[in-house]
Design goal:
Largest sheet: none
Structural class: mainly alpha
Shape: elongated
Order of helices and strands: HHH
Low-confidence stretches: none
Number of domains: 1
Distance between the termini: 18 Å
Strand content: under 5%
Number of strands: 0
Oligomer: single chain
Number of helices: 3
Helix content: 40-55%
């Protein structure tokens, strides 16, 4: 993971050579991460319920976490 690894899949990560070669877009389009935000909210909601021993669908929680981990709009 890079220093900016948390942005992986949300925003293009540039290298030093990209900067040197002029490949950086300094005016990128704002990414629409609404889907990711909703997944993260649901993850927190289910995680809190789980911490308080409320019954949750563990498969749903695992699926949400997998979607967050693999989220990518930069393709």
């Amino acid at each position: 993971m890079t220093v900016f690894g948390s942005l992986q899949g949300i925003h293009k990560i540039y290298s030093k050579s990209d900067l040197i070669n002029g490949y950086i877009d300094f005016n990128p389009e704002e990414p629409n991460i609404e889907e990711l935000k909703q997944l993260m909210i649901k993850n927190v909601d289910l995680s809190i319920k789980q911490a308080f021993n409320e019954e949750i669908d563990i498969n749903q929680l695992n699926d949400i976490r997998k979607q967050i981990l693999n989220y990518n709009i930069t393709k």
